[in-house]
Amino acid sequence: MKKKKILSLLLAVTCSLGLVACGNSTAKKDTKATAAKEEKIKDGGTMVFAFGTDPTKLNPFYQDNRVTFTVNNALFSPLFVMDSNEIRYYLADKVEESADKLTYKIKLKDNLKWHDGKKITVDDIIFSINTIWDEKQGIGDREGFLIGGKKFEMKKIDDLNLEIKLPQVYMPFKGAIGSLRPIPKHVYESEKDLAKSEKNNTPVGSGPYKFKEWKKGDHLTLERFNDYFGGKPHIEQIVYKVSADKNSSSIAFENGEINATYLSEKKFNTYSKDSKYKTYKFDESMPEYMAFNFENKLIAKKEVRQAISYAINKQDLLKSVFENVENAKPAYSVFPPSTLYYTDKVEHYDYNVEKAKELMKKANVSNGTLKFGYIAGSERDINQFNVIKENLKAIGIDVKPVPLEQQAFFSQLFGETPKTFDMTLNAYVCGTDPDSYSGLFVKGGAMNWTGYSNAELDDLWKKAAIETNEAKRKEMYETIQKKLAEDAAQYNIDYAISMIGVSGNIGGVEKAKTVPIYMFEDLSKLYFIEK
After folding, report:
1. Fewer Cβ atoms within 10 Å of its own Cβ: the N or the C terminal residue of the chain?
2. How far is CA 308 from CA 166, 382, 388, 494, in A?
3. What is the CA 220 to chain-centroid distance, rounded?
4. DSSP three-state, residue 154
5. What Cα–Cα distance (Å) separates residue 79 from each residue in 59, 67, 172, 328?
6. CA 246 to chain centre
7. CA atoms of 236 and 45, how far apart (whole Å)
8. Which DSSP string do the residues of 185-253 spell out, in sequence order?
9. What is the pTM of this model?
C-alpha cells in the first residue's frame, strides 16, 4: 500500500486518498500559558479562508490539489492518523496488529453518524475499499490498496469490528489504512461512475463540518455537524472564499474579511509584529526540487544530471525566493527529515563548476539546450529559473523558458498531454513511512511521471517494504536515498516551511494542530474568542 502525493510549488497537487500529516508547528506570536485559560470561547460565528481556486471534487477518492484536500479534510474523517509521535483516533476507536503483522483488527467508535444522520458501520469501510479496488472507478490510489499486487481479505465481525488479513507482510500498512477516509455506502452504492457523480457536489461525510452550499468561482460554505464524534464544533460556519487575486486576499485578511491564510515570508514578518494577527510556521515535510524529464536524451545521461546538480548554486537559488535564507532548510535527500530512516549522508552536490565541466566532458557533451517549464506568472518559479539559467550557462547548457497556463502545466506534468519541457520545479508530501515515496521512483510508479528508472532500486524498494528487521530496513532505505542522490534522480532544493496568519480573535490553533496541506488537522477545535 503506497501513499503518493506530489505538489506544484504554486498550487499544491497531491495524489492520494489520505494524507499522513505530521503536525509540527511553532507559534511565532508568543502566547502565555495563562492566556488560553483566560480566553472565553464564543459559540458560533463564521470563519473565512482564502483559496485561489475551487476544489475539484468533494470526494476523498478524487483529490489532487491542496484546496480539495483541505475541504475534504473538513468533510470526511480518517480512521486514525499516525505520525512519528502518536496515534490520533478519529472514526476508529482502536487498531490491533498481530505479532506476525499479517492480521489487523479495527474497531470503530460507537454511535458514529454520517452527516445525514445514518449510522457509520464496518459495511461502509468494506464498501469504500471495494470501491477503490473497482478498476472501472478509475481511483488513482487503487494500486496503493493492493499488497504485492493482491487484495487483502476483509471480514466483518459486527457493525463496529473489522478484521483484515494481508497476503504478505507490509510494514507501512497500519499507518496507510488509518488514513482511509470512508464514503457512505447508502449514498454511493448505486453510482456506476463515481467520478462523474453529481453527489460529489453535495457530499455526505463524517467530519466536523457538513456541506451547505457551493457557488463555484465565488465561495463554498460548510456548517458545523452537531453530532460530530469529537464534540460539536465551536464555529458555526466555515467559508472558503475563492479569489485568484493575491493582493485582494491580502487586503481582505487585513480588513478581517478573511480569518486565515497562507503568508509570504514578507507578510509573515509584518503580521508577526502586529497584535491584530497571530502567525504560525510549521514544516510541511515537503521536499521542493527540480525535476528532470528522462525522455530527453541529454538528461538521460547520468553525468549530465550530475553536472547540472554541481553547476547550480543552491545558496543563490534559495536567496532568489527567501528574504532571509536562514528561513530556508536546504534539502539533500529525497526524504524530508520527518521520514523514518531519513539520512542526509548522501551526495550534497555542493556548488562546483569545475567538477560540473569535468562531468560534461565525461558525458561527451560540450553544449546543449533544455526547456524549463513553469506556471506562467509564478514569481517564485521565474526567480529560480533565472538563477538556474545563469548557472547552467557556465557548462554550456542554454535553458529556455516554457511558461504554461496552470491547466496545461498540470496536464503535461501528469502525462495527460505530451511534455514540452525538460525540467521543472515541483514538490511532494508522502508522510512519514519511507515506502510512501516509492511510487515517485520505481518504474511504472503511479507518480513517476519523470521516467526515472533503476532496476536495482526497484527491487530494493520491494524488499524494504516487507523487511521486519529494523536494522536491515533502515540500511535498505538509507541505501535507496544514497543511490537516488548518486543517480541525480532530481535536484533537491529545500524542505518547505508553511507560514500562516489567523485573525487575532481566533483561538484553539494549538489543539486544531497545524499540519501540511490541510493547514489545520481538526477544525472543530478552533473558536472565536468572546470579547
Report:
1. C
2. 44, 18, 9, 17
3. 22
4. strand
5. 16, 21, 15, 34
6. 22
7. 5
8. HHHHTT-S-GGG-GGGSS----SSEEEEEEETTTEEEEEE-TT-TT---SSSEEEEEE-S-HHHHHHHH
9. 0.85
- Asked if pLDDT for residue 8 goes beyond 70, the answer is no
The tens digit of pLDDT for each residue in 131-158 reads 999 999 988 778 778 898 899 999 999 9
Residues contacting residue 506 through CB under 8 Å, at least 6 positions apart: 47, 259, 260, 278, 526, 527, 528, 529
The amino acid sitting at 34 is T
156: left (phi over 0), alpha (psi -120 to 50) or beta: beta
Average pLDDT over residues 8-24: 41
Identify the bridge partners of residue 95 per DSSP, sorted by sequence position.
Answer: 106
> pLDDT at residue 16 above 80?
no
First-to-final CA distance of the chain: 49
Residue for cell digits 497584535? Answer: 275
Distance CA 279, CA 332 (A): 28
Question: What's residue 312's pLDDT?
Answer: 98
